[in-house]
Design brief:
This protein is 29% helix and 23% strand. The protein is an alpha+beta fold and 148 residues long. The protein has a 4-stranded antiparallel sheet with strand order 1-2-3-4. A hairpin with a 2-residue loop joins β3 (125-134) and β4 (137-147). The longest helix has 17 residues, at 2-18.
Amino acid sequence: MSRRVAAVVTVSVLIAFAGCSSGEGSDTVGSGASTPARASSAPTTATTTPATVPLSPASSPSEAATAFINAWRAGNRLLASTVAEAGAVDSAFGAGDPGSVENRGCNQPPTPDSPVLCVYRTDVGEVQVRVQPQSGGWIVDQARVSPA
């Protein structure tokens, strides 16, 4: 559990720092001085590399599925990535905003190390989340959205 908390704290710090700016080179309006506007000679393009975070397996299949679904509802891909593989994150977030979510439950696999399937009803359709055991816990390795 402490690794998961550490991952969430790390993600929060990354998000906080991403929103900071130095403020250098900014012009102030209404300072009383008449300063001509600066023209840019060439357009600039900001390139951003998506932040990646290490997987932080949850202690149970239902905890992993719930954390994943809650991150999706919050629109937080980075947080979802702490408990899910990239393909699962892309699948869920590609379906759009889930809106309301109803947990339909998880199956009971025949062995403790078998994958677990959790099902949710959302505004965009039924979502099946497959959770796999991984050293130290459970991660979401697949999310399938069937349109409503």
